Amino acid sequence: MDKMKWFEDARYGLFIHWGLYAIPAGNWRGQEIHGGTEWIMKNAQIPFEEYSALADSFNPVRFDADEWMRMAKEEFGVRYVVFTAKHHDGFAMYDSACSDYNIMHTPYGKDVVRQLAAACEKYGLVFCVYYSQLQDWAEKNGFGNTWDFGPEAEKDFRKYLDEKVKPQLRELLTQYGKIGLVWFDTPYEMKKEHCAELVDFVRALQPDCLINGRIGYNLGDYRQTSDNSIPILAYPDPWEACMTLNHTWGYRAEDNHWKSPKHVVRMLAEIVGKGGNLLLNAGPDASGIIPSESVEIFKTVGAWLKENGESIYGASAAPDFPYKLEWGCFTYKPQTKTLYMHVVEWPYKNHGICVVGLMTKVKRARLLKTGEEIPFVQTYETARDEYRLRPVLPSEAPDELDTVIAFDLEDDPIIQDIVDRR
Ligand code: GLC
To answer: Which of 22, 154, 226, 386 has the highest CB neighbour number within 10 Å of its CB?
Structure first.
């Protein structure tokens, strides 16, 4: 079976950035340290001895893996979860025999990865792990910590690969059940042979485990966009956009610049309409709580998905229309020849929306969430050589976030090429 199928059907995943960095939460010795809070050790050049002492106080007594994953599946509507098993700071959120610098050597003392993997299994979510394969600010041969361990040129990265990266990947891929994907990060100037070696290593342990694009050199199973980036045009192959909900991956108490549910729904529809997946982030605090603001946003988006998920899960890239769609976007399902019109900006009263360029005949139009028929007019205007589709819309938006109209087409959509019709 196509190992990409679960990924392309899922379309929507939950990224969780959680580790020691949730304790300082972007502040060090009374000073706000800018940038992602998961980068605080690097950005503040904190000596390893100081930063690693955070492990002595890490005790997220409010962490509840079962509640996180229940919410994720039943209320957020995500289909897979990517959890930071080992981030750039080198601290493992699981019981690793490779290094005592892990969650078992904290007052909390329990394996977070194991609890999340079990909860994902229970709720039918695909469990995936984030692993920083190059940067490791805890290791003298890992990349990135020059303030404790000196210049990169003097490090033995081969030794780091053999003594930490591969043993830890082996632990994650043999002791925690089926892993949906390994989410590698910041390959920077890694040698291609090292990246290829890690691909082979993962494939040998779990052949169906996907590898994201940040393994490097396009060796992954899908393309990874840059952080918080949506491509202008649809990529032809599977791809994923990773997005923060505020401005940081790890927890930062002061960062309340949350994307609205409407922004998230529009982003999700636009990404799926270009053939991609959205991996949306939550950064839990040091007590193990996902910030309530982000929970509410995820739940609001999840409620919308309960009524409109047909237009997202298992949907594919819609064709490119000739004009920018100011009101929203399209997603498409070739399996049912259904074109989904996502109207995010509802037109003023009876001004309606005219979709230009669809040459394929529409058989029927319905309001997706209720099935109610939507009248429409589909014409070809000879004089101006335009194919025009005008759904007859109610004066008020049935769904303030994104009203989805499903057009059942006679065949796969053919779009008029207005450029070369001189
Ligand atoms: C960047 C950041 C890293 C974060 C990742 C998520 O690579 O370095 O901290 O985990 O983006 O996409």
So the answer is: 22
